[in-house]
Amino acid sequence: MVFSSLIFLFIFLPCTLIIHWILPARFRNFFLLLASILFYFWGEKSLTLIIIISIAINYLGGILIGKYKLDQPTISKWILGSFIALNLSVLVYFKYAHFIIENLQRIGLFINCENPRLHLPIGISFYTFHIISYLIDVYRRDAEPQKKPADLGLYIFLFPQLVAGPIIRYKNISQKIASRFISGENFTQGAIRFIRGLGKKVIIANTMAVICDKVFDITSGNMPAGVAWIGLIAYTFQIYFDFSGYSDMALGLGKMLGFNFPENFNHPYISRSIQEFWQRWHISLSTWFRDYLYIPLGGNRKGPLVTYRNLFIVFFITGLWHGASWNFIVWGLFHGTFLILERIVLKNLLSRLPALIQHAYTLLIVIVGWAFFRAWNLKYSIKYLKSMFGFQHSTDYSALLQISAYSIFIFIIAIIFSTNIRPTLNNYLGKLTSQKPLLNRGTHILVYSSYILLFLICVMELAHNSYNPFIYYRF
Questions:
Q1: Could you confirm whether 322 is annotated as catalytic?
Q2: Is 166 part of a structural domain of the chain?
Q3: Which stretches of 294-436 are DSSP H helices?
Q4: 56-75, pLDDT tens digit by residue?
Q5: Nearest by Cα to 376 from 215, 236, 224, 230
Q6: Inter-residue contact 385 to 334 (CB < 8 Å)
Q7: Structural domain count of the chain
Q8: Closest CA to 248 of 10, 475, 454
Q9: Which structural domain, as residue segments, surrounds residue 297?
Q10: What is the pTM of this model?
Q11: Catalytic member of 322, 335, 393, 444
Q12: pLDDT digits (tens, 9 = 90+) for 418-464
């Protein structure tokens, strides 16, 4: 079940919100856990047992880590390592076993070994990181071990963030699981945030996806440079509005249920460096790797060479986390290389250049990187980049037939809303209406009416068009 589906919008969500609202506080967590299990079971059926078993095992792990942490820290550390290894082994089995065996067979090992491609449980990378976050937070004494299995289950299963994040630290949500209050203002803000994310996904991302898919369906990668650029720029907008739209919907749902999830995107395409880009893109993932991998490796405290090594490791794993493919690994290392180059020399050079040049540099690197992220395989991505930069020639412009006047309009909307124009406009309107009650009331009516209209447009789009992919569901 996806957020941008009619069954979610008109059956699952309203039923869940109404029952959650009217239930006494002591029953809300148990109900939300059941609703979240149903949400996941809708798409994964028997594989839901994997998470349930994982919750039971890691509940025990948290208790044991907490029990030995004070008196026998060495035992606690070994328990932590064992449970992290167990969780990662499940992730590796489902997500990377085929990839590992395939590459071993290419170098002559395990040639006679069967290599079935397993079904990848939806969101396994996200909920594995949630579990590891819980175990490490308990070990670091940033949070107490959860004594109630159902409450730990809710942290892992909570449907707004279950299958595509944001990645939420246990220590940041444990208090809200224990007790939360839903105000009318927060509920309204959550509904607005959800509708905004729905609009990003349904109107912008889906429109860009049609153009992008048509271009990338040119199997040889041999296309005119202009077509290649259009296809990859369309993907640049698709992945941003797809994923940030999902995150907006998750944050909005969280508010409507009494939780405050961390921001996951902060207009990454206005960045002036790759370092800034990763401070704005998929913030919950980059901070997770910073706190649980980069800093434990030594961060930047042990000299430049160790820092570069740590960045290389982190971005190798960042790429691999996104998928069992050399494309993702190359994409991660591509970004990691430019982060290292910026530390060595590029940052000083960029600081002397006009802001427009800094933006252009960052966008060029990001867009080129998306070729590896989107292409079917590494060979195709190289061919695609050759087409983009004029090393392959073709007169096949058929993909441009997908571009209509509506697509061009949405393309312009995507450019505008990739910037920080909306919060800037909100701040301006807030200052303008703060001392004028009548104007303030009229502005609120206009804003609420706009979001109601946006929701209706999204519903009509969903009813009319069944093409509704979510990029990050495969992670």
A1: yes
A2: yes
A3: 304-322, 326-341, 347-351, 355-374, 378-388, 405-417, 421-433
A4: 999 999 999 998 888 888 99
A5: 215
A6: no
A7: 2
A8: 454
A9: 186-413
A10: 0.92
A11: 322
A12: 998 888 887 877 777 777 777 777 877 888 899 999 999 999 999 88
